[in-house]
């Protein structure tokens, strides 16, 4: 599982010109699910994301997580994050989770985040989406499990 985590001052995702998810201060999470991912790995990643300290405290240090900062999450499934880009000039998607399994795991990830009472918005799974964001910092981390 790969999650590209971006600290944002605002982010939204649109499908066909219509906004389907919109947040202000928080984290944009682009999520790639791999063939060997399972429920335990997904729950572990949700815990890790929620505890990841990327927001500034009173001293300007990255010591606050998204809940402590009063932020929200915008979670977007991104199949291409699962690509193997180690060789050649064309990505291979053989390591990506099958779409039906990826959807189950993505929904589980979103549910695990929501269970911690953090505001969560999402894109539409497997849709052609446009993601708009203002990366605050910029701050971007790739989390892998």
Automatic annotation (TrEMBL):
Q: Does the keyword Glycosyltransferase apply?
A: no
Any one of the GO BP annotations: D-amino acid catabolic process
A cellular-component GO term for this protein: cytoplasm
A single Pfam family it belongs to is Tyr_Deacylase
* Reaction it catalyzes: glycyl-tRNA(Ala) + H2O = tRNA(Ala) + glycine + H(+); a D-aminoacyl-tRNA + H2O = a tRNA + a D-alpha-amino acid + H(+)
Asked if the Swiss-Prot or TrEMBL record annotates the protein with the keyword Cell inner membrane, the reply is no
Q: Kindly list the places in or outside the cell where this protein is found, as annotated in its UniProt entry.
A: Cytoplasm
Q: GO: which molecular function terms?
A: D-tyrosyl-tRNA(Tyr) deacylase activity; Gly-tRNA(Ala) deacylase activity; Ser(Gly)-tRNA(Ala) hydrolase activity; tRNA binding
Keyword vocabulary terms for this entry: Cytoplasm, Hydrolase, RNA-binding, tRNA-binding
> What positions carry the motif Gly-cisPro motif, important for rejection of L-amino acids?
137-138
Q: What is its EC number?
A: 3.1.1.96, 3.1.1.-
Give the source's domain of life in one word: Bacteria
So what family is this one in? Belongs to the DTD family.
Q: What HAMAP family has UniProt attached to this entry?
A: Deacylase_Dtd
Free-text domain note: A Gly-cisPro motif from one monomer fits into the active site of the other monomer to allow specific chiral rejection of L-amino acids.
What is annotated about its quaternary structure and interactions?
Homodimer.
NCBIfam families per UniProt: D-aminoacyl-tRNA deacylase
Role summary:
An aminoacyl-tRNA editing enzyme that deacylates mischarged D-aminoacyl-tRNAs. Also deacylates mischarged glycyl-tRNA(Ala), protecting cells against glycine mischarging by AlaRS. Acts via tRNA-based rather than protein-based catalysis; rejects L-amino acids rather than detecting D-amino acids in the active site. By recycling D-aminoacyl-tRNA to D-amino acids and free tRNA molecules, this enzyme counteracts the toxicity associated with the formation of D-aminoacyl-tRNA entities in vivo and helps enforce protein L-homochirality.
Official protein name in the record:
D-aminoacyl-tRNA deacylase
Its taxonomic path starts at: Bacteria, Pseudomonadati, Pseudomonadota, Gammaproteobacteria, Oceanospirillales
List the gene name.
Answer: dtd
